[in-house]
């Protein structure tokens, strides 16, 4: 969702903030802006809808020398996409940027208007500016004004506040990501919604807990300090060395990050294997081997949820532990029944998805032990779970998740092996190696998939179907196509079509049938039913099957030999390629599809 970057330094603040915003572009946004202290000590504001280069054009010829700047990339929630609704929001002396939603904004705004305040935008965010401004006008310090105002707003949010008169930036959050950083040599300080903005700029990073007020000054003796809202010093933050590097974020020879990330998968599978079976991950597995949960409550959103469905199948068949897999956005508002020795399992690439975190909080409140399968180390999820199994996917830039899905499923498979108590990792390693090899072969022969994509990308609608362990892959295939190619696609359990959706089938509809070794004959019968109604058939199925070739209009043969258990991942990569090339033929913005954000930090 919205990206935040703030900096206090030595004349270079605007440049640092613009670089930070550029790094956050991958998260998805519709407008951007910066507010900085200019050479006369005034706060000066520039904001613009569209891509970051629109903002940069606006800044052309402006003296950008400044010691203090806050910047923002907006993903609209309240108020349409226009310049006025973009952030930062500024009155003469205070500017703010915001990520999240103020749930009681309408009510607070009404009160402020009755006190004579005026608003320039339709956003909920400006309401917070109004509250702070009002309190400062009443004589409060900025610190007290921010603390009091924060108590008045409901919902999950992070705010960064800059004031003209004091050389400080304040930040506070509830249920939204926020990270601060310090450069020991220069005393430069930064704040952001994403640690990636801080890479290479700071030596130490700090993750404040909810309701802690972060006070950034960049002053030698006290560059950054954390307080409770009552003004007492706070120790409620985690501090660690900034370690991650920037190199993997280049696209290299690939036209899109998504394509690059699809191609990274064989290497990442080998890396995961090494990490867990030979490297530091071994220690974590020892802990998992001692777990004896009677049931697993698995929660996630989107692609991570579909990965969870594959993992559920693994755990239920290998460990015979019942797994209740749920969309975190639903689970959080139910009144789920917890049992003693339940284990909460949370799957996420970003580790910042608001609904997944809310589901986690529910488990924490009920004193359920929690595990994560997460990519971003240091993310909120990883800090709150009792045990993390990192999926080691590296930074995923493409908004559509690809490599994270593969690594989530495989880490879940490793977890299932460890839960046995007496695992046979050797066999699993062989399977991982075979999968990596098969994916390499698939990725070296993409021309066939590309050609099929070219022939089908203009059809009216798509049904991705699968049975058993391929059903989650059908769901994921449809999601991928929808989000990057902007066509209607549905993932369906193949056996369910005749209970309704088959009414939609005609010669304008495509059925992408995912057929693996499991339940093959049954899946073929379901395809026959669609074929009989003149649907266009694409089969992703076992190689050397003349019958499947004859049944389909387009056939993508796959070599499943020896790969049965991990075959969902293998077919999924074929699906990723199909969606990618269809989107490419449609000419969409593949890495940053419209309306989407990489990290969904609001409900
Ligand atoms: C789809 C996609 C989303 C995410 C979902 C959860 O390609 O990326 O559906 O999977 O928003 O995000 P994380 O995994 O960060 O919790």
3D structure, described in words:
- The structure is a single chain.
- By secondary structure, this protein is an alpha/beta fold.
- It folds into three domains: 3-99 and 156-247, Glutamine Phosphoribosylpyrophosphate, subunit 1, domain 1 (4-Layer Sandwich), CATH 3.60.20.10; 257-443, Glucose-6-phosphate isomerase like protein, domain 1 (Rossmann fold); 445-603, Rossmann fold.
- Helices cover 36% and strands 22% of the residues.
- Strands 3-2-4-1-10-9-11-14 form an eight-stranded antiparallel β-sheet, covered by helices on one side. It has a six-stranded antiparallel β-sheet with strand order 5-6-7-8-12-13, covered by helices on one side.
- α9 links the parallel β15 (295-300) and β16 (323-327).
- The longest helix is centred in the C-terminal third of the chain and has 20 residues, at 567-586.
- It is globular, with a radius of gyration of 25 Å.
- The structure holds fructose -6-phosphate (F6R).
- Fructose -6-phosphate binds at residues 301-304, 348-350, 353, 356, 400-401, 479, 483, 599-600.
């Amino acid at each position: 969702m919205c990206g935040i970057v703030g900096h206090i330094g030595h004349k270079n603040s605007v440049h640092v903030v613009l670089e930070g915003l550029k790094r956050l572009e991958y998260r998805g946004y519709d407008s951007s802006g910066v507010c900085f202290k200019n050479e006369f000590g005034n706060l000066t504001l520039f904001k613009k809808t569209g891509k970051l280069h629109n903002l940069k054009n606006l800044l052309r010829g402006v003296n950008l020398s400044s010691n203090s700047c806050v910047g923002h990339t907006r993903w609209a929630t309240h108020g349409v996409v226009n310049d006025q609704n973009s952030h930062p929001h500024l009155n003469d002396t205070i500017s703010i940027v915001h990520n999240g939603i103020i749930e009681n904004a309408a009510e607070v705004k009404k009160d402020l208007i009755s006190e004579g305040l005026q608003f320039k935008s339709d956003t909920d965010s400006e309401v917070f500016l109004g509250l702070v401004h009002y309190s400062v006008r009443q004589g409060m310090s900025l610190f007290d004004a921010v603390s009091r105002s924060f108590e008045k707003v409901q919902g999950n949010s992070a705010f960064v506040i800059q004031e003209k008169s004091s050389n400080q930036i304040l930040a506070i959050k509830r249920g939204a990501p926020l990270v601060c950083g310090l450069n020991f040599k220069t005393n430069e300080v930064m704040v952001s919604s994403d640690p990636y903005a801080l890479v290479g700029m700071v030596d130490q990073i700090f993750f404040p807990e909810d309701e802690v007020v972060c006070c950034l000054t960049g002053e030698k003796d006290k560059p950054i300090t954390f307080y409770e809202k009552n003004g007492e010093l706070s120790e409620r933050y985690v501090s660690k060395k900034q370690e991650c590097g920037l190199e993997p974020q280049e696209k290299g020879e690939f036209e899109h990050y998504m394509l690059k990330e699809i191609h990274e998968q064989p290497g990442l599978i080998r890396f995961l294997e090494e990490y867990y079976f030979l490297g530091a991950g071994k220690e974590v597995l020892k802990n998992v081997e001692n777990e004896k949960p009677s049931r697993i409550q698995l929660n996630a959103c989107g692609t991570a949820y579909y990965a969870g469905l594959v993992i559920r199948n693994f755990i239920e068949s290998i460990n015979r532990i019942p797994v209740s897999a749920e969309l975190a956005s639903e689970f959080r508002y139910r009144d789920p029944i917890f049992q003693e020795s339940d284990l909460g399992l949370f799957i996420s690439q970003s580790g910042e998805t608001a609904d997944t975190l809310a589901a986690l909080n529910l488990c924490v409140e009920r004193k359920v032990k929690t595990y994560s399968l997460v990519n971003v180390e240091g993310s909120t999820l990883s800090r709150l779970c009792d045990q993390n199994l990192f999926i080691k996917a590296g930074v995923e830039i493409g908004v559509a998740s690809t490599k994270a899905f593969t690594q989530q499923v495989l880490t879940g498979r490793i977890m299932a092996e460890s839960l046995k108590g007496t695992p046979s990792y050797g066999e699993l390693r062989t399977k991982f190696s075979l999968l990596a090899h098969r994916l390499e072969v698939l990725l070296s022969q993409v021309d066939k998939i590309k050609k099929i994509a070219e022939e089908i990308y203009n059809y009216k609608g798509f049904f991705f179907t699968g049975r058993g362990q391929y059903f989650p892959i059908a769901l994921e295939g449809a999601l991928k196509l929808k989000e990057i190619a902007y066509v209607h696609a549905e993932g369906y359990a193949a056996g369910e079509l005749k209970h309704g959706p088959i009414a939609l089938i005609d010669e304008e509809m495509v059925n992408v049938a995912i057929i693996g070794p499991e339940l093959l004959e049954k899946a073929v019968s379901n395809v026959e039913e669609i074929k009989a109604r003149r649907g266009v058939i694409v089969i992703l199925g076992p190689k050397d099957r003349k019958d499947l070739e004859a049944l389909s209009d387009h056939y993508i043969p796959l070599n499943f030999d020896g790969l049965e258990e991990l075959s969902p991942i293998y077919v999924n990569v074929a699906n990723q390629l199909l969606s990618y090339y269809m989107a490419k033929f449609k000419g969409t913005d593949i890495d940053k599809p419209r309306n989407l954000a990489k990290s969904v930090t609001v409900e």
